[in-house]
Amino acid sequence: MCYYLFYVLRGSQFSDLSSWEAYSTMFSAVGNIGPSFISVNKLADLSPIVKIVHIVGMIAGRLEIIPLIILLNPKAWKS
User: Which end of the chain is less crowded, N or C, counting CB atoms within 10 A of the terminal residue's CB?
Assistant: First the structure.
C-alpha cells in the first residue's frame, strides 16, 4: 500500500519530466529493477522535493522499512 503513495507522488508533478521518465525513476528507486530511462543531467537537476520522494521510496523499497525502524528504536539498543 505504501508503494502506491510513492507512485502517485512521482516526479512529473513537481518537475518537467514526462510520465514515462517519472515512473521509470520511481520504479528504479522503489524496486531493484536497474537503470531508469532518464539522463544523468536531468536526474541531477531534479528539485529537492523529487529527490526526497525518491530517497524515501528507496528506503521503503530496497532497504525495507521494518529493519530501519528496529534499528532506530531505543529499546533495541538496551541490553
Answer: C
Give the tens place of pLDDT for each residue, 28-44: 887 777 777 888 888 88
pLDDT tens digits, residue range 9-29? 555 567 777 777 877 787 788
Burial of residue 43 (CB within 10 Å: 0-12, 13-18, 19+) is: middle
Q: Rounded to two decimals, what is the model's pTM?
A: 0.64
Exposure b/e, 2-22, CB count within 10 A at least 16 = b: eeeebeebbbbebbebeeebb
Nearest in space to 54 (alpha carbons), one of 28, 35, 33: 28
DSSP class per residue in 42-63: HHHTS-HHHHHHHHHHHHHHTT
Q: Contact 6/65 with Cβ under 8 angstroms?
A: no
